[in-house]
Amino acid sequence: MRRLALEAGDRIMEIYEADNFDVKVKSDASPVTEADEAADAIISAGLRAAFPDVALVTEEQAASHGQSVDTFLIVDPLDGTKEFINRRGDFTVNIAFVENGTPTRGVVYAPAKGRMFYTLADGTAVEEDGPFDKATLGQQRTIRVTNPDNDALMVVASKSHRDQATDDYIGKYAVKDMTSAGSSLKFCLVATGEADLYPRVGRTMEWDTAAGHAVLSGAGGHVVRFDDHTPLRYGKDGFANPFFIAHAPGIDLKKA
Sign (positive/negative) of CA torsion 60, 129, 83, 159? Predict the structure, then answer.
């Protein structure tokens, strides 16, 4: 999964650094670029070869969205397409393995930022320092969530999807500072302790969140439903998520 993320990232950056690239609009009005499709082809072929008996769900293959599974591989080959199109750099490659509805392994790679996060076989999460070699693991640092101060929280929110409902919910907390990030990097900022809380009051799909969720879980964090604070589960109908909150343990979670 790490190697495929790096291979996909190389192809994405080739397109990103070109003078121009094709952008299309999908049936749900969201944008898709040639980089999404090229990265998906690399990752899907590699996963199907390595894990032929495991179900594969990927954003760019609509035929995979009708499956009813609770153990599966799930891919967002380019999360943060709007960040990519606007050349903001906050886009990621996401590959995850879900077991019985829970993301247990994940890779989040931000090629333009040179940051890579993933889970190890024992479930712990690490950030690997670049430059990245496809065949050899680099220096790894175990990452861990903060011990949050409920009187001075660090909150991360979306760059492209920030709205009044999100701001209203954040207003229920004593916030020391806020940062913004695109794509699944928000989960990773909570995982490394760079933020304490990431509320998402907006539409997401399981491929947007599974890899980041696995990394955050491996760092000691939690992802819960917004409505009742129960754990966010995977393999839901159509692979659509409810609103959710990603957080470090010890936060006094507020109801909506």
Answer: positive
